[in-house]
Amino acid sequence: MKKSLGAKTLVFPTPVWLVGTYDKNSKPNIMTAAWGGICCSKPPCVSVSLRKATYTYGNIMERRAYTISVPSEAYADKADYAGIVSGKDTDKFAAAGLTPVESEFVEAPYVKEFPLVLECKVIHVNEIGLHTQFIGEVMDVKAEEAVLNEKGLPDISKVRPVIFGPEIRTYHGIGKYLGQAFDIGRKA
Q: Could you tell me if 43 and 35 are in contact, meaning their C-beta atoms sit under 8 angstroms apart?
């Protein structure tokens, strides 16, 4: 029997992403965000939802661009740090020992040390409630060659992304391989 837990943001998994932006003085900033995901295939788009109170919110509104840097498990502590302090007061890149890299396609920095990066141009802004959803068209994806599979695509077991448990506020790595999508169901 299932127990009702009420209306909550409780679904697994949610990503741990670092959203990269420049402020009005071109200072690079990163913010940890978990409210995000893929939202369209054509054009390729991802969304992030942020509170207006965040420094990153103002930066995105100003520049209409952001990056998503996907940390590997080895950087879980640095990803967490970027969500604890504000970029208004702290140079998060320097404090975390991370390196900002200027994006090739959008006006936003990404994290050099992280294995997977998406460069996004804002195409829609949706006021939802406490959060504002920024839909970004993916202008480019960059991946470290070491995390690519034989087809030249990122391998999740090599990227080793961090995932977040909302409401319980925990970080986790990925689990074991279960099978090929759109194939294992044929055997059911």
A: no
